[in-house]
Amino acid sequence: MTDFTIVLRSLSLRRFSTTVTVTMVAVSVALLLVLLAMRDAGRAAFRRGTGNAHLLVSADTSPLVAVLNGMFYANAPSQPIDWAAYMKIREAFPWSWTIPTQLGDSFRGSPVMATSKEFFTNFEPVLGQPWTFVAGKGFEAPYEAVVGAEAARLHGLKVGSELVLAHGVGTASGEAAHEHEDHPVEVVGILAPTGSAHDRAIFTSLETGWCVHAEESRLKEAAAANPGEDDHGHLHVDPEDLRDSEKLITGILLRVPTRPGEQVSSALPVAFDLLRRQFPFTVAQPAQQVGRLFEIVSGVDTLFIAMAVAVMVAGALSLMLALYNSMDLRRRQVAILRVLGASQGRVFGLVLAESAIIGLLGSGLGIALAAVFGTVASAELQRRVGLVIDPTMDLRTIVLCTAAATFLACAAGIVPALRAYRTAVVQGLRPLG
Amino acid sequence: MNALSITGLELARPGGFRLSVPSLSLAQGEQALLVAPSGGGKSTLLHLVAGLEDPDAGSIAVADMPISSLRGAARDAFRGASIGMVFQTFNLLHGFSAIENLMVAMMFSSVPAATHESRARALLGELGIERPEQAVETMSVGQQQRVAVARALACRPTLVLADEPTASLDPANAATAIGLLQRACRDHGAALLCTSHDPTLRAHFSRVIDLGTTEAAR
After folding, report:
1. What would the mean pLDDT of A248-256 be, rounded to a whole number?
2. pLDDT grade, residue B200 (50/70/90)?
């Protein structure tokens, strides 16, 4: 028989009250953990998505919008960049690499990015982690596609599957998207998951996008020029037939040279200034813009954390109330323990230990709940906004939350413990009624 | 060494209650019945002896230790080790088994922890408790009383204080219960001070102390 046995027995005697208070602590701990984990995971997901690109050039109106559109597939950029401008940018600086991208098409709500082969050889979606294929390989020819891990899972795509791309971002149900049904695209590669927004995208060559759009625009031109003719449906455009005006892109990913193994370069500010001075486009440093995004949302972030802490404090107050009220019922138990030789300090410690155990049990249950909530919320975020986040809670956060919950529980136990400390033994021993 | 020595005890409470015990002592192993009219201070005297209340004046010594001069945890520890108490309503710890009730009592004493279980089991066996693991709240009144007596003796006390231990029993069972309590105290060498308003119990004690005439007591 130990003090711990007495504490456990006392908790089990008041099973309902114990369960309710443990649940309250658990819910508040889970809420706090989920919010912290989601915040950290969300930040990590955004940071991962920018990969090893130093700069992004786009015709979007602001750097933040350029990054959200060009790297996180929020929307298709509204203004194009022509190929000649791309070539000038390419020649303007001794870049480590440049990768043109074009957004605007989609497949059942998943964004389609047309790009060059270098996207898979030079661009790393996550710093230090190049692309890897779980099946197939990169595209080699027009009308071939490589599919991100999440897009492949979502649409059940495999190597050999055929896709009919749609013009416009559209939605999963195909709403407001015009389909390029004459040009099915064959899946030639499936990418491994990266934990970034790229996982939900589909990639084709620039030529695929250009040819499809060129055919459509030329058909429209022909129909406009000869309104009497019905059949314009057999026009075919090969990559070599493309006019310069049909070679449009919506973004350029750039990287300045760095020393081996390093990510930063003193050349970056120079390249950044050069692009801003010489070209009429928006130039963004993706990592910096992601940092800015966090600054914008940090107020909301703080509000959520404050709410979670308030819930935790409310849980502690409920615990105090439950324990305080239970002291009426436990007056006799405390009096008996005192008669048997327990000191006031020991009785105080027993009640405080009960609070601590409720705090610890609540924290444990809260961590389990948070793991479940986190997984569900992560899946829901991925389904609704395509943000791929890893809801894993870091050990430091778990330890801190557990310590905070236990500390609050102990603090909540002080008043009831004092009441036990002051219990008049003689009154407690009197027969009830 | 006396099991109990009281000298010049005075206690007054608002409302006119007064308790005065000029002198009272119990020898080691001695058994006495304390009688007084209802409200005459029997229970209060037991609480004073147990150190649960403080007198206005006078001294109380148990096993020659002046418990009334001990304070705080020292008094609690001394009570746990030297005084056993049996109550009218038993005051057993609900949610605990019979054996656990005894082991909780020994937790606060100097009885070596390794011997707690064996001693508790032996005591309960002596007092006829066949299922020591049974929760006390599921036991009959008679069984609960036996557990209460066993608990009072668990720490090898010098003195057992029994406050109206037979008040809730019919006369036949009261006689059996008082016999059990007396025998157990005798077997374990503990002095017994028992309060009761039941006149039939007088026959069981060789010494009866009437609180109204304590000056005449030894």
Report:
1. 93
2. confident
Mean of the per-residue pLDDT values for chain B?
88
Interface residue A429 vs chain B (CB under 8 A): yes
Q: CATH no. for residue B132?
A: 3.40.50.300
Task: From chain B, pick out residues whose CB is under 8 angstroms from the CB of A431.
Answer: 88-89
Given an 8 Å threshold on Cβ–Cβ distance, is B76 in contact with A338? yes
Q: Do A429 and B91 touch (CB under 8 A)?
A: yes
Residue B39 lies in a domain: yes
- Cβ proximity of A52 and A254 under 8 Å: no
At residue B34, what are phi and psi to the nearest 5 degrees?
A: -100, 120
Residue B19 maps to a domain? no
Q: How many domains does chain B have?
A: 1
Choose among A6, A344, A345: nearest Cβ to B104. Answer: A6
In a domain, B138, yes or no: yes
For residue A267, give the nearest of A124, A85, A93 by alpha carbon.
A93
Separation between Cα atoms, residue A212 and residue A216, nearest integer Å: 6
Here the ipTM equals 0.91
Nearest CB partner across the interface for A425, out of B52, B103, B151: B52
A333–chain B Cβ distance below 8 A for any pair: yes
Evaluate whether residue B43 is within a structural domain.
yes
Interchain pair A13, B95: CB under 8 A: yes
- Contacts of A131 by beta carbon, 8 Å cutoff, 6+ apart: A120, A123, A124, A125, A191, A192, A194
Instruction: Kindly report whether the global pTM for this prediction surpasses the value 0.90.
Output: no
